[in-house]
Amino acid sequence: MKTASECSQVTVEEQSSPSQHLPERLENRSAGSKHKKNTRKTRNQSISPATSPASSSHQDKTQSAQQTSARFTSDQSTQTEASQLQSVQTQSTQTPPIQDIHTPSTDCKSTQTIQSSFSLQQAYWGRSFTEQSADEQKTQSSHLTLICWNIDGLDPDNVFERAKGLLSHLGKYRADVVLLQELVPVSWKILKNIMKDYQFLQGSEDGYFTGILLRKDRVQFLQSNIVKYPTTEMGRNLLIAHASFLGHPLCIMTSHLESCKASSQERLNQLRRVWKWMKEAPQDHTVIFGGDTNLRDWEVKKLGGLPDGISDVWLMLGEPEESRYTWDTSINDNNEIPNSIRLRFDRLFLRAAAEGAKLQPESMTLIGLEKLKCDYFISDHWGILCTFIFGASEEQCVTD
């Protein structure tokens, strides 16, 4: 495991070879030091690169998350978004229907509050079931649908438009299980305020964290727990939920594994721990893990490949090229990386139940590939939309 000072040394070395280790250099930046699209966008004022090369530490990222609200108010172009987001946060405990809201004041601010809240509500609830395609209507059937997405909550730019875009996607598919990484308190409160039809579980309350969302009318939540990674320097952990889907017991897991090339060994330690918990889950449970693993293929090979009984869902589906790269700077320019870098950071693992019906992946699609009106993508990661279906049990196949 590398210390913070060792991570600093690696970062300095990588700067001397800008094209060779660019993905790791991106990971080494805190959100506040991301390059901005100053030449092509109507964006916030320029944010200077971080002066400390060790900006990948959990402390720096936590501070970045805590300072997001302050940055909203410091930039003139984000003041509107700040007030909109604040109005959403204050409604987290009680949200009357929009048409029932009455305010004594008729000034622009109160009107804007209602309009912005309605805008977020409409983004999520705007599409009726009759407007959905046949594929989307599978969410109402025996298919289990799952979304996994690092939503880049540490980036403070265009937060309101990106939140609307995220809610639009989540409302469109209404997946049975949603696994999110890099949540921050602002984005968490927005989602909880709007998505009343989901059970929310969070991996932490500070800085940035992971979350599991379970659709209440489809998935019965039973219990959850958090597994700490004992040697993490970035506050990472494993969030686990036990649930039932159409009578089938499920164990759902998500994590955001350690970032940085220098943290490869710690990342692999965490991956071993994930696999251990997957293998030790109750044998009658189907186990699904999804998250931002930050993995390179050579790291999995270093561990000897996947352990027996655990499968990579993308590999199970025949390695579809169109859903290979979940972090792709050849298309996604949120970070203005000058080189085209394509990596499969976000992955799904599956461990079938030892008895009963077997869950099999049916399709995998990347989502969030369209730019928003603000000329920004929802996240620097693509989201993964995966569909599963329960097949006949081995006992049934033998009987038939």
From TrEMBL:
Residues 1-110 are annotated as: Disordered. CDD domains: TDP2 (cd09080). GO terms for cellular component: cytoplasm; PML body. Keywords: DNA damage, DNA repair, Hydrolase, Magnesium, Metal-binding, Nuclease, Nucleus. GO terms for molecular function: 5'-tyrosyl-DNA phosphodiesterase activity; metal ion binding; nuclease activity; single-stranded DNA binding. Residues 1-20, 62-82 have a biased composition (Polar residues). Its main location: nucleus. It is found in: Nucleus, PML body. Its cofactor is Mg(2+); Mn(2+). Residues 149-381 form the Endonuclease/exonuclease/phosphatase domain. Residues 32-43 have a biased composition (Basic residues). It comes from the Eukaryota. Residues 46-57, 83-95 have a biased composition (Low complexity). One of its GO terms (biological process) is double-strand break repair. This is Tyrosyl-DNA phosphodiesterase 2. It comes from Sinocyclocheilus anshuiensis.
